[in-house]
Amino acid sequence: xxxxxxxxxxxNDTFIFDALVNHKIDTEGFxxxxxxxxxxxxxxxxxxxxxxxxxxxxxxYPLITNQYHLLKSGGALGKGVGPLLIAKTKDENWKSKxxxxxxxxxxxxxxAHFLFTQAFPNATHKKFMVFHEIEDAVxxxxxxxxxxxxxxxxxxxxxxxxKLADLGEYWEQTTGSPIPLGGIVAHxxxxxxxxxxxxxxxxxxxxxxxxxxxxxxxxxxxxxxxMSEEVMRKHIDLYVNNYSLDLGDKGMKAVEQLxxxxxxxxxxxx
Length: 270
Prior knowledge:
Elements: E1 2-7, H1 11-21, E2 31-36, H2 39-48, E3 53-57, H3 61-64, E4 68-70, E5 76-78, E6 84-87, E7 102-105, H4 111-119, E8 125-128, H5 134-139, E9 145-148, E10 162-166, H6 167-175, E11 179-187, H7 192-212, H8 218-222, H9 229-239, H10 242-245, H11 248-268
Parallel strand pairs: 1-2, 1-3, 7-8, 7-9
Antiparallel strand pairs: 3-11, 4-11, 5-11, 6-9, 6-10
Helix pairs in contact: 1-7, 4-6
């Protein structure tokens, strides 16, 4: 059986799925056609129902619950892993000017946008762009500040940028739960047996990766966009953890809280 599988080219995703898509484990007769795309593209495809199995931002999950089932393995949750809000200089009074500032956001349906809106509902001037363009947009004055994710968390200081806020802190303080960043979903056109089998394979693939870590495979390196191995490992260490193996009760509770917060935000916004 052939399954269309989508995930990002970021090290955490290629690390998780390497063994699965490159047949380093027994795939139990499943064949995977892979699509490596920016997470906002994957979010848009999920709304369209394009892929069978896909990595998505939890920010889009409330919009696709009628099409997709959430799997337990392969996602990204944790504490201290939230997106960062950065600027060229740190103005201590920036919050008082928030309604006049323009912010770069890595995609409309991303968890980063969800967390930003939750923390700063009065910030309405937003420019949506691909995540790796945001640092330059801040540096060249195209925007006043930007929300960064992925490996940019580890490189923004090298470019002389300053952190204004950790968007994950607000979530953690208000909910007490880990931050649901990205999940793995299976389209409802797949039967339950197939969904469970893929979930099991996702876990086996990650277990294989953990067994061989800190070795970085060629598959991880080739998609890492000129990242140093040190940054690749920092990326994996931050975003891949026990919640990636299995959401568990705490992870599921965090996802339910996100759905509740999303519904409340929708009510407030009419």
